[in-house]
Write a structure and sequence with these properties.
Helix content is 37%, strand content 15%. The N and C termini lie far apart (32 Å). The radius of gyration is 15 Å and the shape is globular. It has one domain: Rossmann fold, CATH 3.40.50.450. Strands 3-2-1-4 form a 4-stranded mixed β-sheet. It is an alpha/beta fold and 130 residues long. Strand 1, helix 1 and strand 2 form a beta-alpha-beta unit.
Length: 130
């Protein structure tokens, strides 16, 4: 079994619009983490909304089999932008980044793989800097 740089439990989320190849990316990351490195893989539902609402489940190899031809993201998606200031700056909007950090720790994640486009990567970059 290969080395996993100390990672034991990784999360995967997809955000933004649907596009071809996202299930293949989920499968590639997930199966490699499980089979090659012996990691536990956590699928987070509906992008960053799933991180905020703590909606996730552990994925198995079986969950990742047969998904290459499925037409939608198996994890779901959202266009949530938790770090973008809301117009009214209500209290629930301000707490979203805090919830993401808290839930990441509560899930026991060592790493979060965010699959998507520019917006997804910009959102993923913010907590990595804190």
């Amino acid at each position: 079994m290969g080395k996993s740089a100390g990672f034991q439990r990784i999360g995967i989320l997809t955000a933004g619009g649907d596009c071809p190849g996202i299930n293949a990316a989920i499968r590639g990351v997930g199966k490699t983490a499980m089979v090659k490195y012996g990691m536990r893989v956590i699928g987070i539902s509906d992008g960053f909304t799933g991180m905020i609402n703590k909606e996730y489940r552990e994925l198995s190899e079986k969950d990742l089999s047969g998904i290459l031809t499925v037409g939608a993201k198996i994890l779901g998606t959202s266009r949530e932008k938790p770090f973008k200031p809301a117009g009214g700056k209500n209290k629930s909007e301000l707490s979203k980044p805090v919830l993401i950090r808290e839930h990441y720790e509560q899930m026991g994640l060592d790493c979060l793989v965010c699959i998507g486009g520019n917006g997804t990567l910009k959102t993923a970059y913010r907590p990595s800097q804190e």
